[in-house]
């Protein structure tokens, strides 16, 4: 007996809610849109339309994956970030809306005129590509420890038609040639290895190397802050994303590394998220 779009969505949302999805209705809609190859408006306009047997089988297979907690972005293979659609793979962190506030701050602070920007730990290339898409006069370099991430970021650049970005393998500043950037940005790993948050939700499926840092999550932030001054122009800016409870510690690290005008800004949820100097 064929099932309508409306009933398939309702059943799927109930199933995912039983399996602890924090957003069962949205997950069900996104997965069904992916199966049908249609925008979400289609689900409401055509709510009485029946799914074909094949559509229903594919949808059920995706729901099985979501039921065990696999992130929706890994199941469908992409996540929208800023104005871009980014391919994602389990080798990289899934771009989050929190990080869009870092992009917004970067765009506010970037000087007018030509210059260059460095994104450390670029992953999918999200931050680098968002900045490059808004500032065609900037040359943006993104680096990542993992070759798979570099290849993925390069693919996202091509898929989004961006030409003023380049990606390379580097452990933080390890392979960066001698150069002064107008801005350095990073969303480094910053979660404490003991944080119970690591055993819940999407982070269980994401690479630990993109999430966890020693010294209560501050080890990589410290390295980036200490080495950045050598790679910044005189009035250059460093912007780093961090945990909601790390603002004070990160401001101290910035100041000790010689930065002035140090401040912490909130994300869209009103939590401390980005420190800059
Ligand atoms: N904000 C992410 C989370 O808490 C972590 C991102 C990161 O470690 N860079 O899930």
UniProtKB/TrEMBL annotation:
S-adenosyl-L-methionine binds at residues 121-125, 144, 172, 187. GO terms for molecular function: peptide chain release factor N(5)-glutamine methyltransferase activity. Residues 105-193 form the Methyltransferase small domain. Residues 8-77 form the Release factor glutamine methyltransferase N-terminal domain. GO terms for biological process: methylation. The keyword Ion transport does not apply. Its EC number is 2.1.1.297. SUPFAM superfamilies: S-adenosyl-L-methionine-dependent methyltransferases. It comes from the Bacteria. It is an enzyme of class 2 (transferase). Keywords: Methyltransferase, S-adenosyl-L-methionine, Transferase. It catalyses: L-glutaminyl-[peptide chain release factor] + S-adenosyl-L-methionine = N(5)-methyl-L-glutaminyl-[peptide chain release factor] + S-adenosyl-L-homocysteine + H(+). Signal peptide: none annotated. Substrate binds at residues 187-190. HAMAP family: RF_methyltr_PrmC (MF_02126). Belongs to the protein N5-glutamine methyltransferase family. PrmC subfamily. Methylates the class 1 translation termination release factors RF1/PrfA and RF2/PrfB on the glutamine residue of the universally conserved GGQ motif. NCBIfam families: hemK_fam (TIGR00536), RF_mod_PrmC (TIGR03534). This is Release factor glutamine methyltransferase. It comes from Grimontia kaedaensis. The gene is prmC.
